[in-house]
Write a structure and sequence with these properties.
This is Sporulation and spore germination. With 163 residues, this protein is α+β, with helices and mostly antiparallel strands. The protein has three helices and six strands; from the N terminus they run αββαβββαβ. The strands form two sheets. It has a three-stranded antiparallel beta sheet. A three-stranded mixed beta sheet has the order 4-5-6, covered by helices on one side. Strand 5, helix 3 and strand 6 form a beta-alpha-beta unit. The longest helix has 17 residues.
């Protein structure tokens, strides 16, 4: 019995020292490292269940103003997706200012053109997604101003991390 146990221990030690036949290899090139940025501009839309979902538009990162304009002017949303953020034919860059941890976006629409509270969330989430994708802080909030009607209070996106 003792010889059997000793033989098993000795065999295990020999295998461990032998490295189980694995031989060293040279340096392997694994290609470029991932950057962590998804391609395209994040734009938030609303699905049939009433949830905010992000869709990528274009092939490069846009500014907050460009992304917001993209949301307001997009006509092809995709099956089962809609926007409550209002519509605009704006062609110029939207005014965007940052003071402390608040981004203020001047929208070329009236407040009552935003058809539901989730439309406000679409605009806020789109702006914050671009801000965070550009390396901005997740604690930043967004205030929306309108041609007519009260501005929103600074707010976070309900579906993005807040840091």
């Amino acid at each position: 019995m003792i010889r059997t146990v000793l033989a098993v221990v000795l065999a295990a030690a020999v295998l461990a020292l032998a490295g189980c036949g694995v031989r060293p290899s040279g340096v392997l090139d694994g290609g470029d490292a991932p950057t962590g940025l998804a391609p395209g501009t994040p734009v938030y839309l609303v699905d049939d269940a009433g949830n905010l979902v992000v869709r990528r538009r274009g092939d490069q990162l846009a500014t907050i103003g460009q992304a917001t304009k993209m949301l307001l002017t997009t006509t092809r949303l995709g099956q089962g997706l809609r926007s409550f953020a209002g519509d605009s034919d704006v062609v110029l860059e939207l005014p965007v200012t940052t003071t402390g941890d608040v981004i203020t976006i001047g929208l070329p629409i009236d407040r009552d053109e935003v058809r539901a509270e989730i439309g406000i969330d679409q605009l806020v989430c789109t702006a914050l997604a671009v801000h965070q994708q550009s390396g901005g802080s997740p604690v930043t909030r967004v205030r929306l101003t309108f041609v007519h009607g009260p501005a929103t209070e600074p707010r976070h996106c309900p579906v993005l991390p807040r840091g």
